[in-house]
What does this fold into?
Amino acid sequence: MSKVLLALAASVVLGYAKTALLVVDVQDCFLEAACTGTGTDGSLSVPACEIIPNINQLLDTMVFIQDYHPPRPVRACSFDEVIFTQDYHPTNHISYGSSHGLAAFAHLGGLGGLPLMCIDPASGLTLDGACCPKFYLQPSMNCTAELCPPPGWDYAVNNSGIIINNSACTVCAATPAECFEMSQSMWPDHCLQSGDSGFPPTLYTDPTDIVIQKGTNQFVDAYSAFMDNTQTLKTSLDSMLMSKGINRLYIVGIATDVCVQWTVTDALGNSTANYEVIVVSDATAPVLGNMANFNASIATMIGAGATVMSTADVLAVECSLSRFADSDMATISSRPTAVLIGVVLYLMVKLRLF
It folds into this structure.
């Protein structure tokens, strides 16, 4: 009992600091055949099967609390919450090369990404945003200097589904000054809601885990779990973390140099709450297994303010018993006299009154 009382004393005195493990995009679509549920390579596969055991070690940190009757297991004792992000695209997504008559990775051909014109909705949410192909709005644009659909392409004929019901195509045609330009990389069709966007069977998951889906808006792309690629619109992640009092994030997942990096830099940026960020480096993997890009990405995240640890480093940190506080403890810590109660409990334990 004394350990739990000490944990309670610490929790009420030190405040509401909480920790989450954020597992970024560890999905069949981003994995090779060896660890997918289908037994085939994902639609945008990364050589990342080897990171799943490391993530599972973090997820499977189990302890039994003997002071509860009966003793009960606590999953992931280093974390108050486990959160998975899921790239979850509808068909004909704005980021697919096929939506514009282009090959996947066309942005690597020398002209950069496909220019889009985007709106900035009042809500500030990715669900309400939209981007429209610049070529649809300005078909006379200079295609020798900027990436365009192939010659003869007409969105109204070849893919009207990317412009119909796209509010950016309406707003940016009528009032261009209300829109801003961005560049969109061209990807293979991947992580379809009706396809291979699920989590691999080799990854430990639990019904209580939180799942944040991104890329669900056909007309907005989001590498980061926090924001869209224009970094003007937000997902629900930041508000959810704030509502749960979480201010420390351990981040793992795919790919180090894309979605993980964007998530980390957004977490440490000015548009989100104040988070401490720890990147578990050997629980992330880069696109194409490119270690030069991996190292550059790690350096970028450190430069942004992240701490880098290994899985072994994280597992070596003793689990905080404050994570085991139940609803009674939470009720006590919410009262105005919480600090005083914490001090009294601490002293009573130390004086062996329990």
Q: What stands out?
A: The chain has eleven helices and eleven strands. The chain has two domains: 17-90+197-316, 97-184. The CA atoms of residues 24 and 267 lie 13 Å apart. Confidence is low (pLDDT under 50) at residues 1-16, 62-75, 321-347.
